[in-house]
Amino acid sequence: VQLQASGGGLVQAGGSLTLSCTASGSVNRDNAMGWYRQAPGKQREWVTYIFADGRTNFDSLLKARFTIDRDNAKNTIYLRMNNLKPEDTGTYYCHYPPGVWGQGTQVTVSS
Known about the structure:
Layout: E1 2-6, E2 9-12, E3 17-24, E4 33-38, E5 45-50, E6 56-58, E7 66-71, E8 76-81, E9 90-96, E10 100-101, E11 105-110
Parallel strand pairs: 2-11
Antiparallel strand pairs: 1-3, 3-8, 4-5, 4-9, 5-6, 7-8, 9-10, 9-11
């Protein structure tokens, strides 16, 4: 399985971005997929997962501003981020458990 993430960019605080991640190869559509992020100088942290049936798990601090959904026909997940804050700045990584990672897409939120 390979993952291709896109959608990062520079946005002002309070703005929105949508990240997408498409899986290709021997994709199991029953597999969960999710997002992690890594801020400069910090460890990678979990953001969210979405399961095949649409159930989601979120970091409790992000749940109010971020949503995730998936298009199983396209093997694609979307992370929709609203009311972005400077502390959301970082590289966002798509994850296909257990061990497949996307290349990362950079999100920069200016104050």
